Structure prediction request, 80 residues.
Amino acid sequence: MSNTENTLIEVYTGLSWEVEMLKTILEDHKINSFIKDGYTGIIAPHHSGGTAGAVKLCISSGDLESAKPIIEEFLANKTE
Prediction:
C-alpha cells in the first residue's frame, strides 16, 4: 500500500445524521470512513463553512473509486 492510499480525503460534508447515514452505508460495503470536525460546526460554525452542526466524512484515497458510486447514489436519493 502506498502513501497515497493512506491519505484521508473529504467525500461529503453535511449534517451529523446525514454523515452518520452515509458512513454506515459505506461500512456496509467494507469501506472504512472517518468523521472529522464533529464538534467544530456546533461550537464555532465560522470554522466549518458557516453551517452549525456540519461535519465532514473522510475516506482513504485508495477507496475513492469504490466509494464514488455509493456516494452518488446516496446524493441522488437524498434529493428525491
Notes: The first strand starts at residue 8 and ends at 15. The chain has a mean pLDDT of 82. Helices lie at 16-28, 40-43, 64-79.
